[in-house]
Every structure is written in C-alpha cells, then in structure tokens.
Amino acid sequence: MFILIYVDDMIVTGNNTLSLQRFVEKLHKLFALKGLGPLHLFLGIGVKRDDTGMYLTQTRYVEELLKRTNMLSTSPCPTPVVIGKPLIALDGDLMENPTLYRSVVGSLQYVTHT
User: Please, are residues 13 and 5 in contact by the beta-carbon 8 Å criterion?
Assistant: First the structure.
C-alpha cells in the first residue's frame, strides 16, 4: 500500500483492493473524507491508465506554465542564449516583474525534480 499526502489531498493505492478498502473505511471513521474516484491529476501530474499500467505526465502543467508566460506559440531552440558572448552582471535592463521570473524558475525546478 502506498499513501501520498500533500496538505489536504491524499492518494491511497496498492495491489490489495480489500486492504485498501479497510484502510479507507478506518480513515473515514476518523476524518471527513471525500472520494473523488479514479486519480486523473495530482500536484500538476496527470495520471492515465490502460490495461498495461499507469502513466504519469506533466503535459498539462507545462502547457499552463507556457500560457502563463505567453510562450505557448514559441518555437524550440537548441539553446536560449547567444553562444560565445560572455555574461556580464550589469549588462541588460532590469526586469519589470522579478516575481514572475522567480515563479517561473520555481515551476521549472518543480517540473525537472518530479
């Protein structure tokens, strides 16, 4: 049995259906639970099932990140910087919204670490 808890969300899964049912019944006696049925999305990770197994994807999370940064229609490139130009700390303009930048960097870290 596997139990994943994040704030007020919980996933309970495993191979033994009877054991899972008993566990959820015990939890339901102690706490107010709301069963949402089969898992489709958790913490930005999409879940798809078929006869061969369960598959996890971050497509939706990444698409929402691209929408938030107005980059949904951009084309991929091998590297986002000019090659061969040294970086200088005081070069360029200050960002208008550093909070957005920090949020995007945090989101990218989440995508790469999960």
Answer: no
Indicate the DSSP class of residue 84.
T
Name which of 32, 72, 53, 52 is nearest 10 in CA terms: 32
- Highest mean pLDDT out of 7-11, 55-59, 89-93: 55-59
Q: Are 32 and 26 in contact (CB under 8 A)?
A: no
| Residue linked to tokens 């033994």 | 16
Q: What is the dihedral of CA 46, 73, 70, 47, to 10 degrees?
A: 0
For residue 109, what are its two tokens?
A: 């870290």
* pTM attached to this predicted model: 0.68
pLDDT of residue 106: 95
Q: Which amino acid is at 38?
A: P
- The rounded radius of gyration (Å) of the Cα atoms in the chain is 21
| Strand (E) or helix (H) holding 20 | helix 17-30
